[in-house]
Protein 1
Amino acid sequence: MRSFPFHLIALAAALLSASCSQIIEDVKPEGAGTVIATIGQETRTSIGEEEDGARKVLWSEGDRIILSAGTASNLKAIYKAADYGSATAAFTPEDASKTVDFSAGIIAGYPVEEMYIGKPDGNTELYFTIPSEQHYVSGSFDEGAMPMISDVAYEPVLNFYNAAGVLRLNLSSESSAISIASITITTSEYISGECGYIPNSKKIFFDDSMICSNQVSLICDGGVKISSSPVPFYIVVPHQTYSDMSICVTTTDGKQQTFRMKSGKEISVKRSTITTIPLLLNQIDDAQDPKFTIKIESVTFENIRVSIEIKNTQSYFCGLQTKESFLRDLDSGYLLESLPYTNPYTTPLSYTGNITSFQEALGDVLIEAGQSYVIWFVPYDKNGEYTEEDLKYVETMTKGFTSGGSVKVSYSDLVIDMTSISMTVSASGSSYIYCQLLPDEVLLNYPEEKDKINMLLTPGSGSTVFDKYQDILIRKQLRPGARMTLIAVAIDRNGKYGPLLTEHFETDHIPYNDLEVSIDKDLAAFRNTSTINWSSTGGDVVQYRYILKETGSHLWQNVFEQSVEMAQETMYLSPGLYYITSLEGTSAKISNLTEGTEYIMIVVAVDADGNISVADSWTFTY
């Protein structure tokens, strides 16, 4: 099932050399009255016999395509080939009651079993699968492995093209007794799994919210014999540039040879092309167990220097976790049970250096002083079966902070307004500055200087940490009229902390003016329009702020009843409020209220100088 001639084009490749065969034939559709599907400038399911120097791809008996107009009542329809054996074939509805209307535009895909099609509006993706396990077919690729797409059409003439490319591995051997059982390709990029496609873009992308993999395997059922003359093995892969690839060939007697891409090389696979890679099997050995070497070279208060080497495996899982997190995941079974649903990393791996430089592969873990960490590895298993015997790990603890440092923290350019404090904090020669801005009443829980420092340096305490030496800007949203204290300590490069900086501040109260805001408390009108209106007097309003909550769950209810001033200050500062500019009007559309439930609405007005009105509130039962 293919209609494309292939012409060889030289390509710079990675392993040895690679070539592309591009489909360039343009088949003109013909016929009317039913859906005409043409395998156009690109291809489809299998590679046909060579004719006049070109390989043809043809529709086959029983082929089915899926068409979608993207409407809820007619999401998709299956059409079946009425004829076959050529690049252009007529297709008729498999179910006469399910057809599509071309007037709004339809998109189509093949094969039916691997396609999900959404609305063809240029924004909705079409989804399909590039199988992670494909089966050897002599002279072609696996039936159904190559997805085809026809972009938005407004008449019953469909022009299909391939959504992926093909790798042709030409295997030869110095021995005539070799039989291939499987070939596994591992890449740093996704190479199989769930793909998305936006109509008319000619580009695919992997959706990592679904199942995607860095591996694709070709299974040779019963074994395929190779000799000194190259034997082609075809594997469907996404059209993209591969910067890291390894190919592991396994024989029927369990021996293996792995080919790896040279550093700095690339393989570019184009859509609807065959990229050829010749591989000579001349170093086949018994499959060896993976070997992991992990050595901790040094530990500081902020870092771990580690040497890691992995051999005899194409891919692996790895992690960097706190010891507490690692033991919890291991004891619960989550660590090993989650591996089949995680993408493995590719090899080879040989690394020496600070663990912070290795974190891109291991995960985003903040290395903190005085904490225990575990670095672990599990070799990939194609059957997805993992036990604790497969797990290799090493643990270590970073050095903790110590007293006796001489670096002092200072500040300048202090600005205090009614909602924030900003300043430049510096400590020349320090490695880190830990600081917090806290209400004075909170600091009563830390009476001694040592207590405050321990709180600052405790992981998860909420401290702000700066890794620069100067010109650090501290900002924090505050309640007007608040009494606050800044505490900060500098850490030198050896993990020693200096004297504690303690500075007290008090923010201004909110200024009030003659602004007044009044809610239109008309429940009948609100029920009719689902809109609450209000008005203001006494000044030029630039913004309204409001909140609507159930009275039982409203955190400010008692505050509002106790003090109008306190409630309006809360309204002025609290996140999660609704904001409406004066240009947008003086009303709010309200929905999803529950019948019989009591609600409270609070509205305030703000002028250009930040002055806020006295708040108005309305408590009502909907």
Note: The first helix runs from residue 323 to 332.
Protein 2
Amino acid sequence: MKTSIKNKKNKFFGNKKGDGSSVFLVIFVALFVAVMLRAFMTGGGAPMSMGANRAAPIELSFSDVLRRAPDIKTMQIHGQDARGTLNDGTNYRATIAYDPELLEKLASNGASISIDTSKTWLDHLGTWVPILMGLLFIWWIFRGMRGAAGGGIGRSIMGQNPTKIATGSKTTFKDVAGIDSEKQELMEIVDFLKHKDKFKAVGARVPRGILLSGQPGTGKTLLARAIAGEANVPFFAASGSDFSGIIVGLGVAKIKEIFEMAKRNAPCILFIDEIDAIGQRRSQHSFNDQDREQTLNQLLIEMDGFSNDTGIIVIGATNRADMLDPALLRPGRFDRQVYIELPDMAGRREILDLYSKKVKIDGKVNLQDVARGTTGFSGADLENLLNEAALHAVRSGRHEIAPADIEEARDKILMGPRKIRKMRPEDIKLTAYHEAGHAFVSQVYADVTDPIHKATIIPRGRALGMVQHLPIDDKVSMTISEVRANLAVSLAGRAAEEVFFGADKITTGAESDIASATRLARYSITTAGLSPKIGMVAVNQAAAFNSRAPLENASEKTAEIVDGEIRAWLDRAYADASKLLRANRETVRRLAEELLAKETLTGDQIKAIVSGRKKKASTRGRKDAKSTTKSK
């Protein structure tokens, strides 16, 4: 692959939906208005009687009052507001600070001074409204907490119910495909809830908890919805983030609430999605996260405390099972841990058959080929694939999904949307030869590599072109011959650039090819034990959270040997690819010219072009593959 270098109405205090945001808003606005009103009143906004003279008063500053003290005849003081008349009969108004020396100075000059200490209704309002609103806010919080402690499905802490009761779910196990073994684990839980007597007769105990883990989109929440549809028991659903809040202790109270609710409706199922939000591993140094740990401790107590026969089955779902606390994973809490893997080819076909019933598909679409070409897709990815294909069909004016729509949707998901770029003719030509190199070497090693699906030079995402392969079946391992062949295929694009344009014309377009080849070589040498020089030693062990530390268990000398061995493997693969391309220049040239003319070639078209030299080249390829297995 050649890549580019660019990269309903609610009553007050009674929200029926459990959303307290409107109450918070009302209280906040009321407090804000009260505080502003109090500030206004304190600033001297209270009205005062002006006496008989109604002329507009002049404004005096505090310094003016000090300077013109002999001219002041009368002064009426209310708070910081002072009003009165001057000796010439002029009315004035001023804002002053209480100063006994000033008042004494004014009195000594013959001014008549009166101080009004009475309060108007606005003064009382500005004083008591903030206090009352604060008390009302505190009462509302404790009202919600009493509601949570007292129970009741319709009442909860802070006006928010952390659980949702799934009733009348239309999803059943028939709607779950591609994960039969995982589905069987949960069908036993439903069977126990329906026919618990036959289990008790043998002495069997139902698992108290089941942890569903796996990559995103593999069907964890779908399985939970299927249980809700299959089981004739109450089903409570919550998310791990529902138990966190800004108030310390709120998570503990919510855990108590949801389990009290579940106990009153036992036997029942409690589903907690994204349980890693509250179940993360505790640490001796987590001084700043005590509230989350208290929430986790309460969850541990509720799942398996002194009252362990509660009739509640807890089902948790997470993408990060490695982050969970060991105490949460032990038997008695989560007795079963079900890892939901990405579907294999047969599973992908079942999922496609299931989702294809919801859309209109042309009879020419081969779902088996679609399943072959979607290795690594989850159930959610496959559903999205058909949806993208349906959208493309509508944009193209079709009433059914055609094979072209499936192709476009898959390419869009894998590589990104089609790019309209103004490329130089020499860049387009170089891209064509680059992809022709990949395609030809792939065809040479057809006996040990996956069949070619198509080759294209249409830009998508960061890729200027690509060669796609469709696996015949699911591979769980690779032979060393397959590793060597795949390395040669990966580096064949760069080799074609050098063979046909010269060493000074090679480009940065082989970036992703080199990266993938290096990863494969490093894995084969340091982890899979395929290098005779390194031997069967796991040089690179998995570090925390499944990340890999480079050469974690290796000495400096071993690290040098590993680096040299990786370089030798890649150099040999590059040399093999270059040798094949030089020996079949005309065939590769025809492939490139066809790509320039048609932009996209199918696997059958590529095979037909190479067929004139295929027998000889294939024989040479197999010999080269066999010979490379003997190299060190």
Note: The chain has a mean pLDDT of 78.
